[in-house]
Amino acid sequence: MPEEAAASVARAASTSFSDHLGRHHPDLLASRSRVDFPAQGAGPALAPHATTIVSLTFAGGVLMAGDRRATMGNVIASRHIEKVFPADMFSVLGIAGTAGIALDLTRLFQVELEHYEKIEGTRMSLDGKANRLAAMVRQNLPMALQGLAVVPLFAGYDTSRREGRLFSFDVTGGRYEEQEHHSVGSGSAFARGSLKKLWKPNLDEASAVQVAVEALYDAADDDSATGGPDVVRELWPVVYTVNSAGTRRIPDRDLETTARNVIASRSIAGREA
Amino acid sequence: MTQQFYVSPEQLMRDRADFARKGIGRGRSVIVLSCRDGIALVAENPSPSLHKLGEIYDRIAFAAVGKYNEFESLRQAGIRYADVRGYSYDREDVTARGLASVYAQSLGAVFTAESKPFEVELVVAEVGEHPAADHLYRLTFDGSIADEKGFVVMGGAAEAVVEVLRSSFSEDLDFPEAVRAAVHSLRQDGTTGAGPQLGPESLEVAVLDRDPEVARGTHRAFRRVGIPELETMLTSRESPV
Known about the structure:
The structure holds 2 protein chains of 2 kinds.
Chain A: H1 2-11, H2 17-24, H3 43-46, E1 49-50, E2 53-58, E3 61-66, E4 70-72, E5 75-78, E6 84-88, E7 91-98, H4 99-120, H5 126-139, H6 141-145, E8 150-158, E9 163-169, E10 175-178, E11 181-184, H7 188-198, H8 205-222, E12 238-243, E13 246-249, H9 252-269
Helix pairs in contact in A: 7-8, 8-9
Chain B: H1 9-25, E1 30-35, E2 38-44, E3 53-57, E4 60-66, H2 68-88, H3 96-113, E5 120-126, E6 135-139, E7 145-148, E8 151-154, H4 158-168, H5 175-187, E9 203-209, H6 212-216, E10 222-225, H7 227-235
Antiparallel strand pairs in B: 1-2, 1-8, 2-9, 3-4, 4-5, 5-6, 6-7, 9-10
Helix pairs in contact in B: 4-5, 5-7
Organism (chain A): Arthrobacter crusticola
GO molecular function (chain A): threonine-type endopeptidase activity
Active site (chain A): 51 (nucleophile)
């Protein structure tokens, strides 16, 4: 009996919500469902696919932006999808890959952080959050091998170091801290090229928003799966910033101004790119 | 061969209830009151980190008196219950009534079947759109549950505190007024020698905001009131003492 009571101390090391679900309600975890596809790589045509996310640091914080398109093979599945979410008060999460699984991962991660905060009475460290997300991405590895991969991008304000940091992940749960800026998804190669030319140290928040919108514009220009600003439907990218005051969604009217400026300046230039 | 003495069920339950009451009676008081701005939770607690008040979910809070290890495990179980439920259904499907009835079942089962009952008393509070929609559920060690209106006082000197609080309580109080009324009545409980000196550092105060979306841009209504804010709350305008 005393041994058993002592063992409960070790069990209390993890206050993870997803571990709790895995033990007591495994059917609620998307990563536990077993699927056998007739052919590998059927994923992209089977379910909507979320595309490009860009993230960059600026003076005193970090920003993340995503376009509004989801595709299913050659079809546009959604023009309204949102792929960047606040994870908690000081971090944001953007997703690329199979939309259904990615949205589920986001919801689970949000509850994971809130659950920890309520049980422990304190916030998880930024590195702790990145490690938890890596573990959750790794649990999805069997599905990723079937073609249903999810690759998040994670950014947050480190309250102890007082700076914005960003992390990328791979399907095996690898976690990589990125410097300055990063991009994931089908249009990421083009967005990254754009970011390399536009990003500068110590950007202010408004210029950082401008850089992000322009990088997404360049991605949409060359990648058919990334949506550009839609002036007909008035759909603008989703942009969140995180700084010492917490996460903030940039209002649509600011994004409209920025997006229209980008379109106007390029129209005036009248060049091929 | 040893002979088991016969103990009547009435006697057995009475002994257990007396045992639990004795444990709870040693504890300092906790007050939960519903007012205009939301629900205020006020506890006499010298420790800044071993909480008696806690957040359960978006609009639901937890307050307890009694043995720390027992109510702490109930608090954690409540958070797990709420988070699993909110994740598998929807956030708005998590209610204080559901949680309170699960707590009641658990407390009742332990009271009748285990060798020792829980020495705790709990309040599960849910803030509504207006004071009439607030819910305060009081749960006692034997699993009985009561739906209270206005305010709840738990702990050793509860009767004395209720007497004082009844005179100053109304549903139209704002948070500073409600907290001042609660602290004033805690000071009058007549048990602790430190009664009149009950200052911000020996109090634990939290609130459930009625409209957290407008006030702080979040869906989580629970907020701890820190010592600096508590000091202004207690000293603002004339003190009712």
